[in-house]
Amino acid sequence: MPQFRKDPVNGRWVIVNMETPRVDFHLPKHASSTKTCPFCPGNEAMTPPAIMTYPAKNPAESKSAWQLRVIPNKFPALRIEESAERTGIGIYDRIGGFGAHEVIIESPDHHRDIADLSPADAELILRVYRDRCLDLRKDKRIHFILIFKNQGWDAGASLEHPHSQLIGLPIVPSRLLGEVRGSADHFAQTERCIHCDMLDQEKLDKKLTIFSNDDFMAITPFASRFPFEVWILPKNHAHSFDSITDEKLPGLASALQATLRKLKKLLGNPAYNFMIYTSPIHGREAKSFHWHIEVIPHLTEVAGFELGTGFYLNPTPAELAAEQLRSVEGEMS
Amino acid sequence: MPQFRKDPVNGRWVIVNMETPRVDFHLPKHASSTKTCPFCPGNEAMTPPAIMTYPAKNPAESKSAWQLRVIPNKFPALRIEESAERTGIGIYDRIGGFGAHEVIIESPDHHRDIADLSPADAELILRVYRDRCLDLRKDKRIHFILIFKNQGWDAGASLEHPHSQLIGLPIVPSRLLGEVRGSADHFAQTERCIHCDMLDQEKLDKKLTIFSNDDFMAITPFASRFPFEVWILPKNHAHSFDSITDEKLPGLASALQATLRKLKKLLGNPAYNFMIYTSPIHGREAKSFHWHIEVIPHLTEVAGFELGTGFYLNPTPAELAAEQLRSVEGEMS
Predict the structure, then answer these.
(1) Is A28 at the interface with chain B, CB within 8 A?
(2) 3-state helix/strand/coil string of chain A
(3) Which of A16, A327, B180, B294 has the fewest CB atoms within 10 Å distance of its CB?
(4) What is the per-residue burial (b if ≥16 Cβ within 10 Å, else e) of A149-175?
(5) Tens digit of pLDDT for each residue in A159-183?
(6) pLDDT of A27
């Protein structure tokens, strides 16, 4: 069973795989083919049974009966069946590996990422993210849900077929707590949201914006950690991603697709990660927090300085990254 | 000039390169040759003038007049000539790019890493680390010094010739502050050092040790973030790396070389990072902190989950990594 382990000095938690531990790292990064891909249509039996399946709109015209599948991770970091019991070994703390770990197979097409899908198909992915969050909220043991995507081997993907992941945790991660606390402190001082202030300042400065529509803005944040890091924020304050209405989903899909297309064009299809930052749930809800998506192309390595300090060294100022990203089209080519 | 920028939400600092910003990431990772390597003997004019040069013991028998050079980084993240002035842009905070950024060219040999050097040559590297710290301590504006090494492209090295780096910062990084606070809290409760407690528990358990001599122990920490992560700790409590005496340097060199050789043999010469964690300086000194070296082979990518939560997913339990590392020799082969 998986296990949470706590560093006794700084309190940082680690999830450790106890069941299928890995000791051999000699394997080359393999190129997968659609024949052996467990996420391709026809290979459904290679995955655990689906939690949800969304049928194809025109199955007769499509090679696949489905447009999107949500499945439990076959090699889960955490499991809903585990207990969240805390135990000690001498000075060390452990928690049982309770949690949710799901995979969203974003489309039947092995070779088309979110950037390349139709607006409706991209919107479906975001709707499913929201609906899975709303469903998992019912389990009162889950205090935080992270939705994230690793696209490309260099960004940590282990399968090529475009997919994203959802992890529901019994603990609120320290990084999120830090942001929640920062937002709450600013609100206590000013009765304003710090992210809303950032957007207001940017509406005047216009140096960091790369895309904007009625409901969403995509910016390169002032203190970007990574070259060409982009954040997508709702223009109106909202603390929880899963409160997004059906009406606003097309605008979010459009902002995400434009961002990914711009990165793809400018940087030559880089590997990337994105993460949806949203408020904790169940009594830890933080109404002064402003949910957003962080998109990080994988262009440099996290190295000794970053590992050692938690600081980042960024060779590309945000305003320069924004200028470059504005210069390429975000439309489907 | 370089610039520190602060994220207004979570307070995280980033160092941004304003002078030689990078926008082109299409360049392939290049294999460097000894002819064009700025760190090889004969090419000294390609680097800034050395801060210190250690002569070769037998220059007549050696291809190089020097055994080790310390130079200012040619593309420094920070500069000692900059001011540490704080300025604001609306809601955002900036600090001028004051700091030290030095490169330690570990030996004249382009192809021999620390693991492959003679014990005396490895010891010299550690002595130089200490002496540079003692020298930079004299500048009261520097509050923290990180020594780190990126070995291999995948670990973020930009040049192949074995080298390490030193960065002196006007701020104590939040990650270090967290460890300092954790150590101080434990000491306040127990009047004991938390790292000494870890070593005491390990002396009984013996599950995590991979190497031990009179003064140093190398262990895989219980809450390892990464597969085959190793920490090297002095057995007797000491808060500051630069307090190490000449008598103890050979033992530290031996522990570091044995660790690197074991990783090399077991994992097929992986890229790796190491960082020396030591107490802040100048009034922020933390006597309950226990200095140590963290060695991290680069086997997996930091991906969306880690970026999103600050949590880590580790596929290899520490005790299993230790068992495997004990099974290979740490002697020079």
Answers:
(1) no
(2) CCEEEECCCCCCEEEECCCCCCCCCCCCCCCCCCCCCCCCCCCHHHCCCCCEEEECCCCCCCCCCEEEEEEECCCCCCECCCCCCEEEECCEEEEECECEEEEEECCCCCCCCHHHCCHHHHHHHHHHHHHHHHHHCCCCCCCEEEEEEEECHHHCCCCCCCEEEEEEECCCCHHHHHHHHHHHHHHHHHCCCHHHHHHHHHHHHCCCEEEECCCEEEECCCCCCCCCCEEEEECCCCCCHHHCCHHHHHHHHHHHHHHHHHHHHHHCCCCEEEEEECCCCCCCCCCCCCCEEEEEECCCCCCHHHHHHCCEEECCCHHHHHHHHHCCCCCCC
(3) A327
(4) bbbbbbbbbebbbbbbbbbbbbbbbeb
(5) 999 999 999 999 898 888 889 999 9
(6) 57
Average pLDDT value for chain B: 92
What does the block give as tokens for B160?
């192949």
All residues of chain B having their beta carbon less than 8 Å from the beta carbon of residue A155 are 301, 303-304
Flag whether residue B154 sits within 8 Å of chain A, measured between CB atoms: yes
User: Minimal Cα distance from A3: which residue of B?
Assistant: B317
Cβ separation of A16 and B267 shorter than 8 Å?
no
Q: Which residues pair with B103 in a beta bridge?
A: B71, B165
Enumerate long-range contacts of A131-137, CB under 8 Å, 24 or more apart.
A131/A52, A132/A51, A132/A52, A132/A70, A132/A102, A132/A104, A132/A166, A133/A166, A133/A241, A133/A242, A133/A278, A134/A242, A136/A100, A136/A166, A136/A168, A137/A242, A137/A281, A137/A282
Instruction: Average pLDDT across each block of 10 residues of chain B; the chain has 333 residues. List them in order.
Output: 84 83 69 81 95 90 92 88 87 91 96 96 98 96 95 91 96 88 94 96 96 98 95 98 98 98 95 96 87 95 87 91 95 73
Partner A, chain B 171-210, Cβ-Cβ below 8 Å: 173-176, 178-179, 182-183, 186, 194-195, 197-198, 201, 205
Domain B33-74+99-326 has CATH 3.40.50.300: no
Measure CA B290 to chain center: 16
- Nearest-Cα distance to chain A for B129, in Å, is 15
Residues of chain B contacting A193 with CB distance shorter than 8 Å: none
Domain boundaries, chain A: 56-66+99-326
Q: What is the pLDDT of residues B48-79, one digit of tens each?
A: 999 999 999 887 787 899 999 999 998 888 88
- B318 chain-A contacts, CB cut-off 8 A: 16
Class of domain A56-66+99-326: alpha beta
Nearest-Cα distance to chain A for B91, in Å, is 7
**Residue that is written with structure tokens 């391709």 in the block:** A40
Polymer length in residues for chain A: 333
pTM assigned to the model: 0.92
Interface confidence (ipTM) of the complex: 0.89
Q: With an 8 Å Cβ cutoff, are B275 and A205 in contact?
A: no
Q: What pLDDT, in 10s, does the model give residues A251-301?
A: 999 999 999 999 999 999 999 999 999 999 987 778 999 999 999 999 988
Question: Taking 70 as the threshold, does the pLDDT of residue A28 lie above it?
Answer: no
